[in-house]
Specification:
26 strands; alpha/beta; Rossmann fold; globular; 31% helix; eleven-stranded mixed sheet; nine-stranded parallel sheet; binds zinc ion; binds alpha-D-galactopyranose
Length: 664
């Protein structure tokens, strides 16, 4: 398979929104910023196929030619994410039906039904034409399939396919009724055609990804839709590979992350992972860091930063500008966590439409003496210099945090006992502990290889599918360290409770059982004592009975004062900690200090700077030191003798606001 032959710097470019005689000027401007790549043809279906079966590639030919002549690496999209008007008119089934049962009309984008035979046929034809025409062009570096897949359809065709999918999964109605525990509320099904997709007027309510009456049904529907969209991706990928088996194919993942798509299942079909990053202006720095670590861990390989904004977005409630220097720091943050490209949306700011106020490399002034352009050009110079050195390096971690889509779905569908269950929040509580200590972590799925880690953290491992408990037991028995929390080991893959006390199949490794769980009311102060300190916790308090575990912390308030809140169990050669409540950040830090010392987990450096490390094949290390703040920070002494490969000089003790060093 092909690889990126250089570090890509560029982004989404929509020359088809502009007169042809402007294109060569644009390219000259991009070159001034050392931009070497453009993603094109993302939403051009209506221009490429003005009526069914009639194709017009004249514009795209010229764009491809112009970029090729200028030695750009082209990220070639397939244009299937936004459908032309004639398609909606001629084949209404191509449009998605929403959760409220309303069929989409012409407009918007990303709103095709994955089970529409007409959509599938027309997309297939279009992609075949595009690939046939351009696959021999050596400037096409990456194929970008569709765009930001996500979102469910609830139409009749989906319902039909869902019934078939369920038949395959469960074989008999008896199995299905058991899996969904259908004797509740007279839900027993006697015929496959009685199955109805989840929707607001049926077995669901309010929010399609967090409220349901029948969790088994709703979780299966998310699995089904994610698979069907994945089939669409693979349909396009197969066409590309038919012509160019060596092609590098990807689709851009997105959101925080996207809940509806199981990226861990999709990862195996991606030749390279790509991600669109738009953290909110007030998001903590550890949030994008987490997302980059997740993207890198999907294939344990560097990924593409497919989109990001050079200045501001237009679609958040407030879209402030990035401060001078901040853009470079945020782009380098992705690189520090494993990105091998820096790409923007958009290279040229649109003149009309919904994204005309979205930041761009070439802004509306169309000048190159602007702050944004100058910063983009400066970043280009830096990337040109350091890109070749870091292209073949990777991040290494001895800690894995489990982030699992089935848990994401099932944990947030829980009806009770607190409305504040939020999977990301529980995961981020733990991620932040490592981020602030500069301890590298991978964000892994339950099917990943556990043996490469010294410590695995599994916050709210709510759904434990068959075999996972044994895998964890084996890992710990051999000497692995394992942390899990409240709301773990509760249900099987169909969301039915493991009988016999919580945390179900994790009782053995944790050496405890939980009798009850208290929901903590906001502002209710619950404390626990740990090593003479008073800790604060909330959300849930598990009432724990140790079996073989030792108690590390005990509640010091409520009627369960004196009972265990945190325990540790020696199991084989390893240890398993159970943290029975959501501890406030500072309190959790104390517990983690203790656990990490016990596990002898090393930090790259104790510092308020963000520090990561990428290593090449020969073991050469590049330390990324990022000041992700508006204030100067002190560089840890141990780095003072390293050379910064951005400036080819020794670093100074003070790292300026938003400054980035790559030390070698
Ligand atoms: C998404 C899309 C782009 C663009 C950007 C704007 O990531 O993929 O087409 O709309 O958002 O931020
Ligand atoms: Zn549908």
């Amino acid at each position: 398979m092909k690889e990126l032959s250089r570090f890509l710097y560029g982004g989404d470019y929509n020359p088809d929104q502009w007169p042809e005689d402007t294109w060569s000027q644009d390219i000259e401007v991009f070159k001034k910023a050392d931009i070497n790549s453009a993603s094109i043809n993302i939403f051009s279906w209506a221009l490429l196929e003005p009526e069914e079966g009639k194709y017009d590639f004249s514009k795209l030919d010229k764009i491809v030619e112009e970029l090729s002549e200028n030695n750009f690496d082209i990220v070639m999209a397939t244009s299937t994410a936004a459908m032309p008007a004639w398609m909606f008119k001629k084949y209404p089934d191509v449009a998605r039906v929403d959760y409220q049962g309303r069929r989409h009309k012409f407009g918007q984008r990303h709103n095709f039904c994955p089970n529409s035979i007409n959509y599938q046929r027309l997309a297939k034809h279009l992609v075949e034409k595009i690939v046939q025409r351009y696959y021999k062009n050596p400037h096409i570096a990456v194929w970008h399939v569709n765009n930001e897949y996500g979102g469910n359809c609830y139409c009749e065709n989906c319902q039909k396919e869902f019934r078939i999918w369920l038949k395959n999964r469960y074989q008999t109605l008896d199995n299905l009724n058991k899996a969904w525990n259908n004797n509740v509320w007279s839900h027993t099904i006697y015929n496959w055609d009685e199955i109805v997709v989840p929707n607001e007027l049926g077995d669901a309510w309010g929010n399609e990804v967090s409220e349901t009456i029948v969790p088994g049904l709703s979780i299966d529907y998310l699995r089904f839709q994610s698979e069907k969209l994945q089939d669409l991706f693979n349909m396009e990928k197969t066409i590309i590979k038919k012509y160019d088996p060596e092609a590098l194919v990807t689709t851009n993942f997105h959101s925080l992350p996207n809940k509806m798509i199981d990226y861990q299942k999709w990862a195996k079909d991606q030749d390279i992972i790509s991600y669109d990053s738009y953290p909110a202006y007030n998001a903590p720095n550890y949030l994008p860091a987490f997302l980059y670590d997740l993207m890198r861990s999907l294939k344990h390989q560097p990924f593409m930063l497919m989109e990001s904004t050079p200045s501001q977005v237009n679609w958040q409630s407030y879209s402030p500008l990035k401060h001078p220097g901040q853009m470079q720091a945020t782009e380098f943050q992705a690189v520090a966590h494993g990105a091998n490209t820096v790409q923007f949306f958009q290279l040229k700011q649109a003149v009309g439409g919904s994204e005309k106020y979205h930041g761009a490399v070439i802004g509306h002034s169309q000048r190159t003496d602007t702050r944004v352009f100058k910063e983009v050009a400066d970043l280009g110079k830096k990337l040109k210099k350091v890109g070749p050195k870091i292209l073949h390096t990777n991040n290494e971690s001895k800690v894995g945090i489990i982030f699992d889509w089935s848990n994401f779905w099932s944990y947030e569908y829980v009806d009770g006992i607190s409305q504040d269950f939020n999977y990301m929040s529980e995961i981020l509580d733990y991620y932040r502990q490592f981020y602030e200590r500069n301890i590298p972590v991978d964000i892994i799925g339950v099917d990943d290889n556990f043996d490469r880690y010294n410590l695995i953290v599994a916050p709210v491992l709510y759904m434990v599918k068959p075999g996972l408990d044994k895998k964890i037991n084996k890992y710990v028995k051999k000497g692995g360290r394992f942390i899990t929390t409240f709301m773990s080991g509760m249900v099987n893959e169909s969301d039915n409770i493991y009988i016999g006390g919580y945390p179900g199949p994790l009782k053995e490794v944790t050496g405890i059982w939980v009798e009850e769980s208290d929901a903590v009311i906001p502002n209710q102060k619950i404390t626990a004592s740990f090593d003479k300190a008073e800790l604060q916790c909330g959300l849930i308090c598990d009432l724990i009975h140790p079996i073989s575990a030792k108690v590390l912390a005990r509640y010091s308030s409520e009627f369960y004062a004196g009972t265990p809140a945190v325990t540790v169990n020696d199991y084989g050669k390893g240890k398993a900690w159970y943290i029975g409540s959501k501890f406030k950040h500072g309190s959790l830090s104390r517990i983690m200090d203790y656990i990490l010392t016990t596990c002898r987990i090393q930090s790259l450096a104790n510092s308020s700077l963000e520090i990561t490390c990428r290593k090449d094949m020969s073991g050469k290390k590049y330390y990324f030191v990022l000041n992700m703040s508006n204030e100067a920070q002190m560089l840890p002494d141990k780095f003072l003798n390293y050379k910064d490969i951005i400036t080819d000089s020794l670093p100074t003790k003070k790292v300026k606001p938003w400054q980035v060093l790559i030390l070698n």
